[in-house]
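Suppose a classmate hands you a notebook page containing two proteins, each written out with its sequence and a corresponding row of C-alpha cells. How would you begin to make sense of it? This section walks through that situation. The first entry is reproduced here exactly as it would appear on such a page.
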Amino acid sequence: KKTKGDPKTGQEEESHTCCGCRFPLLFALLQLALGISVTVLGFLMAGISSSLLVRDTPYWAGIIVCVVSLVGFVMLCISYQPDEKTCVQFTVKLMYFLLSALGLVACVLAVAFAAHHYLQMTKFTCDTILESCQCKLDTADPLGRTFVYQDAADCGSLTSMLNLYLLLQMVLNLITALVCLLACFMMWKHRYQVFYAGVRFYPLTASEGQQQKV
C-alpha cells in the first residue's frame, strides 16, 4: 500500500491538478465566461436587424462552448482514477475532448464569417430607404448585389455599431478558440503524457520491492 509520504502518490495527485485546482476547472471557467459573452453579443447583434443571417450572429458558437464548460464541471464531480479505470470517467473525458474540438471549429468559423462581413462593410455605400438600410459594394454597377438591413432607420449608427460588434466577435471567438485548443492539448497530454501511448515498463526490482512493502 502507498503511504501519504510516498513521492509517487504526490506525483499522481499533482498530475491532474493545475494551480492547486482539479484540471478542467480553470478551462471550464474560461469557457463558460467566454461562451456567455459570445452568446449575449450574438443575440445583441440579432436585435440590430432582423435580416442578419445566423452565420453573422454566432450565438451558436457561444452555446456550444457553454455546453463544453458544463461537461468540464461534470468532470470535477467524478472521483479521479489513474488511467481512466472507470467507464464514467473515460466517457466524460472523451466527451469533453470532442466537444472542445467542436467548439474550436465553431469559433474558427465564427471568426471567418465575422471577418468576411467586416471586410464587406468597410467597402459598403449605404442609403436609408423606407426604414431599411440598403448597401452596395459598387454603386456604379446597376446589377451589383444590394445588401438590405431591415429595421434600421439610421445607416450610420447601424454600420458603426455592427462594425464594433463584428470586431468584438472576432476577438472573443479567437480567444475562445485558443482556450478550446489548449484544453484539447492538455487533455491529450494528460492522457498520453508526451504524445506517447506505449506501454510503460518498470524494472523488475522495483515491482519486487513494492510487493515486499505490501
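The notebook's second entry, a different protein, reads as follows.
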Amino acid sequence: MEGDCLSCMKYLMFLFNFFIFLGGACLLGLGIWVIVDPTGFREIVAANPLLFTGAYIMLAMGAMLFLLGFLGCCGAIRENKCLLLFFFMFILLIFLAELSAAILAFIFRENLTREFFTKELKKHYQRNNDTDVFSSTWNSVMITFACCGVNGPEDFEAIPHAPSSSVKATPEACCQRELQSREGMFVNKEACLSGVERFQNRQGCYTVILNSFETYVYLAGALAIGVLAIELFAMIFAMCLFRGIQ
C-alpha cells in the first residue's frame, strides 16, 4: 500500500511539474520572440519602458518556471533525491520571496497614496524628456490611460517649462489623441497646449488607474494565495517523495 501511494505521488508530481515546465517554456519562448523579433515589434517594445521592462520580466519568469518544472519532473520520474532536494530548496526560496513581497506590499501600502505620487511627479517629471525613465514612464501611462498627472493638469503648473515658449504648463502627453498610443494623431495639439480644456485629458491618472484595476484587486489577491498554496503543496509532495525513496 505504501509503494502504491509513493508511486501515485510520484506521477502526480511529475504531471504537476510538467505543466509548470510547459508554461515556463511558452513564457520563455514568447519573451525571446518579443526581444529579438526582426519584424519591427522589438522597436515598439523598446520605445515603451513599461513594455520593455515587462518583456524582460516575462523572460525571467519563463526561465525560472522552465528550470523549476524540469527539476521537478526529473526528480520525480527518476526518483532522484538530489534533484528533489534542489527542487524543494528552489521553490522554498520563491515561496519566501513572494511571501516577503506580499508582507512588504501590505506594510508600505500607505506610501501608494495620491499625495505621494503627486509629490514624486512634481519633483522628478521632466516633461517630454524621453531619455529620463521616470518622465518617459509617466508619459506612457498618461497616453495609454488618456489621463493627465495624478490629480489633473493642475499638477504641472508648478513644474518648470521653457520660459520662451507660449504654451501652457500642460505636457503633450495630456493632449487628446485619436488613438491612445504614442503613434496616435493629436486631436488638436496646438489648442491643447494653448490651454483649451476640451482638447485635454482632464481626469487624473490616480483615479483612472484605480478604477481600472479595482475589479482585479480581489482576483489578484486570490490568485496570489492560490499560487502560494500550490507552492506549499509542491514542497510537501517533494519532501514526502524524498523521504519515501529508499
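A careful reader of the second entry would note: Residues 162-167 have pLDDT under 50 and may be disordered.
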